[in-house]
Design a protein that fits this description.
Blueprint lengths: L3 H25 L4 H22 L5 H4 L2 H15 L1 H10 L1 H24 L4 H22 L5 H4 L3 H19 L3 H21 L10
Helix pairs in contact: 1-2, 1-4, 1-6, 2-4, 2-7, 6-7, 6-9, 6-10, 7-9, 9-10
Length: 207
């Protein structure tokens, strides 16, 4: 079994990053305080809940204290600096970076737990993907916009790449903290590069 701390650390990083990105989306859409809390919470916890349901265990958001504490600590800090965040949001980079970290962190937890549960190749890929995008899809659906995974530059592809690299790493020399850190760094760099260079997967155009 993987070190418990490895999954917990990735979970906490993902929760903080996604809570911040959910908060920023709420600010962008001029949601009230309750709306900001809901947007941040769904983004931060949605993917983990989907993951745990598939793994047939009590969702971590209901069974542990750290997810709720982490979400509300992030929301509180973000609310205190909301004016500064609004200015940063205009530059877009804060949202992209926080969303990218959340995406990669949850991709990792989904893949690690799937490997630990002895899922097959496709099971690991799917669980990693759903864990990474679940909260964002729920958030975007709630605020009535097309989910980022369907239109954004290389967004969902990052989760697939992370899962594939973790599968290869586990098959060759077993997953460890160093390999996870290297994969996370590579995935974050690739996502930010894709955003900067505006890389997109091919789109089907019907004339």
């Amino acid at each position: 079994m993987f070190e418990f701390n490895l999954v917990v650390v990735a979970d906490i990083l993902g929760i903080i990053a996604f809570a911040l990105s959910g908060f920023l989306i709420g600010v962008r859409h001029k949601l009230d305080l309750l709306g900001l809390i809901i947007s941040a919470s769904i983004t931060a916890l949605g993917g983990g809940v989907v993951r745990d349901v598939i793994l047939d265990r009590t969702p971590f958001a209901f069974n542990e204290y750290y997810p709720a504490i982490t979400v509300f600590a992030t929301i509180t800090i973000a609310f205190m600096f909301r004016n500064n965040l609004r200015e940063e949001l205009e530059r877009q980079w804060l949202f992209v970076i926080s969303d990218t970290i959340g995406l990669v962190a949850f991709s990792i937890t989904g893949a690690l737990l799937a490997i630990d549960a002895h899922f097959n190749f496709f099971g690991v890929i799917i669980l990693s993907f759903l864990t990474a995008i679940g909260g964002g899809v729920l958030r975007d659906t709630m605020i009535n916009q097309v989910p980022s995974v369907l239109i954004s530059d290389f967004y969902g592809s990052i989760a697939l790449i992370v899962a594939l690299l973790l599968i290869i790493s586990n098959a060759l020399w077993n997953v460890n903290t160093l390999s996870v850190a290297l994969i996370a760094t590579l995935a974050i760099t690739l996502r930010l590069l894709a955003y900067t260079k505006q890389w997109h997967l091919p789109k089907l155009e019907i004339k």
